[in-house]
Amino acid sequence: MQEVRAKAPDEYDFARLVWQACALCRLGMIVKIRVTGPWQRHGYNSRMVRFALRGRDGYAWTTTPQSEDAQAFFPAFAFPPRDAHHCEHMRAARSRGPERARPLDPPPR
Fold first, then answer.
1. Quick check: pTM over 0.85?
2. Which of 4, 17, 46, 82 is a good FRET partner for 55, with 20 to 30 A between their CA atoms?
């Protein structure tokens, strides 16, 4: 499991993406995605998902059940929300928890 968060200058954590990917089975799964309040509709969801997809061409991606907003967002990435699919490697990795969060700079204005 991996995650990326976006924080405001005051350290408020306003965006988060948690995902899991298996290089052996070429599977990826978006576990959780959120952007709160005034930061919505500024491209943070797209940037975080592109970050997770980077270097994973040809993977089959799924999502866990998401909010209505997230469900409307995912078709833009050509993998509609559907039942999450775990491989044996992903199930084993889940028990270890997410890797350390990576910083994501805000987009230029």
1. no
2. 82
